[in-house]
Amino acid sequence: MTPVPDQDFIKQTFPEPVMPACSIVKTLRGQKAIVTGASSGIGKAIAIALGHAGADVLVNYVSGPDDAEAVAAEIRRCGAQAIIHRADVSKEDEVAAMFARAREAFGTVDILVNNAGIQKDAPFDQLSLVQWQRVLDVNLTGQFLCAREAVREFKRRGVRKEISCAAGKIICVSSVHEVIPWAGHVNYAASKGGVMLMMKSIAQEVAPWRIRVNSIGPGAIRTPINTEAWGTREAYDGLLKLIPYKRIGEAEEIGRAAVWLASDDSDYINGTTLFVDGGMTLYPGFETGG
Ligand code: NAD
Fold first, then answer.
1. According to the model, what pLDDT value does residue 121 have?
2. Domain range list for the chain
């Protein structure tokens, strides 16, 4: 049974974050971004970080327009443009319509952040075809459909040197589970393993067009997707055994990595996963010498 989050523990351990002041360094000024699944968690933090860095952002959501609108409002507060758009990333026609909307509102797209993702967990012998298929549809096929639209737009437009030295950037939000097997989450781990080789293969194919494709591999980040892993003292203590750095990550830390990967500061980075995980991929079982 999923443990009930302990609100007192959560309040004591994770004080409410203060929204950072609007950055004066606008490394992404003039760039146009789409962030999928941007009404909560990591996607929300990435959308806000890109907006604070000067990018205009289409905030994609699948449910809860009010949450998406709050993200857009925060981006506008710092001077960039933002629109919200409902689309299910696993639906080809909805993805095409989302890119058409971005082109209509902003003229083009320079940055795609493939963030939308879900978990539907079960012991392997109880994992239904529906659970398997839905996770693959959203986490892998959704990233494929969005990346394909982005590459079409990047190739059509080419490089505008005054905006960026690349014709476009795709950032796939993967997971440490693209390399760490995960019992009880076989569909999720398979989807993220798929994202890894999809990302690398697209990167290899489209690099000559000056299109960069990379992933961020978050470790344990404190978001709604994994409340059961940090929402009680017992769960949190157990989680820390997997993290050499001995704290959970915050979504804003993924936002900052995304800004860097989208900027020309990382122009020679292509086909790579940047793990932002406090060392979770360092085989923590060996931290005392094995
Ligand atoms: P979250 O549940 O807050 O965010 C997922 C978002 O995707 C939600 O806004 C949801 O509405 C959206 N979404 C779901 N299905 C969609 C669909 N069909 N179309 C469009 N949007 C859809 O959880 P999160 O932790 O912020 O997860 C974001 C991404 O980060 C996911 O890809 C997840 O796998 C990845 N990730 C998270 C962690 C973590 O520790 N939180 C670790 C590794 C990877």
1. 97
2. 7-13+27-276
Query: How far does residue 138's CA lie from ligand 1's centre (Å)?
Result: 10
Residue 18: what pLDDT? Answer: 72
192-217: pLDDT as tens digits: 999 999 999 999 999 999 999 999 99
* Percent of the chain whose pLDDT exceeds 90: 92
| Residue 178 contacts residue 117 (beta carbons within 8 Å) | no
Residues carrying an active site annotation: 188
118, 136, 172, best to mutate for ligand 1 pocket (most atoms within 8 Å of CB)? 118
What would the pLDDT profile of 61-103 be if each residue is shown by its tens digit?
999 999 999 999 999 999 999 999 999 999 999 999 999 999 9
What fold, for 7-13+27-276?
Answer: Rossmann fold (3.40.50)
- Give the residues surrounding ligand 1 with Cβ less than 6 Å away: 36-37, 39-43, 60, 62-63, 88-90, 115-118, 138, 142, 173, 175, 218, 220-221, 223-226
Yes or no: say if 188 and 218 are a contact pair by the CB < 8 Å rule: no
